[in-house]
């Protein structure tokens, strides 16, 4: 029998300022801190405050471990896999190093996974900005879902891959050798997709908000996902190709569009909003275009009117025209946003 009900794995990197609040949210859990194992995996931080804090937490609490990687991997997948290997809890959850959980998060999710004999329990979350806290809206509109096969409810593909809202039975992960991609992004999406195909029972609680997702997108403080550099886009594409490979291996290519449509739209709009050079954008478009083609071969377009202009140039490998149209889409969206702002005031 496991010593802990839940192991929470937290990859860290130079985030000492946020880490105290994150850790306090673990200590305040109604399930009881003694039932929680906390595993910090530091990705070779250069910040002494972060390193000292992790060492202090490790020495002060018997249920807290701090592991220090010798070389910076630059991606959360490595730390999560290290933590998963060390986890002794019956269930495991993966938190980010700058967010917090609601006090009853672990208790509610653990009880669901335990009494419903589920492999995975998924909850909803709050988006936390400097001056406001907003409930994430989903296609489920406050409903609950119990799924034994993903074909029973395809809406689960519309749920964000955010790994921190998902509690897993550890035995299920180990049995199926489900691990995170390393050295690239979209690792949470690939992990989530793997779960959807292999879990015997998934429970989704749309009306339970377990997590406070801090939005860091200011000029001097950005989360990795908001760092719109060439490397960020490139590493997302690497992850997408891994997911495509997984679908082929599991004979699940029928779900390609369910998985990728919204993520391709996000990628395209993010590329249009980035400040990287046009030459870099062209190289990235060339890299991802085989996947775009696959999407269009399955559906007529991206199911969004503004993006329909991309269909023909994608099929013709006309990378320059794809870029021109992406830039045009960006300008149209900016114009519409300004008009909305004017009428609001």
TrEMBL record:
Keywords from the UniProt entry? Glycosyltransferase, Transferase
Annotated Glycosyltransferase 2-like domain ranges read 7-138
Instruction: Please verify whether the record's keywords include Nucleotide-binding.
Output: no
- Gene Ontology terms, MF aspect: hexosyltransferase activity
Broadest EC class? transferase
Q: Which Gene3D superfamilies match?
A: Spore Coat Polysaccharide Biosynthesis Protein SpsA, Chain A
Presence of keyword Transport: no
What EC number(s) are associated with this protein in UniProt?
2.4.-.-
A Pfam cross-reference name = Glycos_transf_2
Q: At the top level of its lineage, which domain of life is listed?
A: Archaea
The molecule here is called Putative glycosyltransferase EpsH
Native source organism of the sequence: Methanobrevibacter woesei
Gene field: epsH_5
């Amino acid at each position: 029998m496991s010593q802990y009900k839940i192991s929470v794995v937290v990859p860290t990197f130079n985030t000492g300022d946020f880490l105290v609040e994150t850790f306090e949210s673990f200590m305040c859990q109604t399930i009881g801190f003694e039932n929680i194992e906390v595993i910090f995996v530091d990705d070779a931080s250069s910040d002494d405050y972060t390193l000292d804090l992790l060492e202090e937490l490790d020495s002060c609490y018997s249920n807290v471990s701090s592991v220090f990687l010798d070389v910076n991997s630059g991606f959360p997948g490595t730390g999560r896999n290290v933590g998963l290997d060390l986890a002794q809890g019956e269930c495991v959850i993966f938190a980010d190093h700058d967010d917090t959980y609601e006090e009853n998060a672990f208790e509610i999710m653990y009880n669901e996974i335990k009494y419903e004999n589920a492999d995975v329990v998924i909850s909803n979350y709050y988006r936390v900005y400097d001056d406001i806290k907003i409930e994430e809206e989903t296609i489920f509109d406050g409903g609950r879902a119990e799924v034994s096969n993903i074909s029973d409810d395809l809406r689960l593909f519309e749920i964000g891959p955010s790994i921190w809202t998902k509690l897993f039975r550890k035995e299920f992960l180990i049995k199926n050798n489900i691990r995170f991609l390393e050295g690239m992004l979209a690792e949470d999406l690939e992990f989530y997709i793997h779960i959807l195909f292999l879990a015997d029972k998934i429970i989704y609680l749309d009306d339970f908000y377990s997590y406070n997702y801090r939005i860091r997108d200011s000029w001097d403080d950005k989360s990795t996902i908001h760092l719109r550099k060439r490397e960020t886009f490139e590493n997302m594409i690497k992850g997408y190709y891994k997911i495509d490979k997984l679908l082929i291996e599991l004979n699940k290519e029928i779900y390609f569009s369910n998985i990728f449509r919204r993520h391709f739209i996000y990628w395209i709009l993010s590329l249009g909003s980035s400040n990287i050079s046009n030459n870099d954008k062209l190289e990235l478009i060339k890299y991802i275009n085989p996947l775009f083609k696959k999407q269009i071969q399955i559906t007529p377009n991206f199911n969004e009117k503004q993006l329909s202009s991309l269909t023909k140039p994608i099929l013709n490998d006309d990378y320059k025209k794809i870029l021109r149209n992406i830039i045009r889409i960006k300008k149209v969206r900016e114009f519409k946003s300004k008009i909305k702002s004017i009428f609001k005031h």
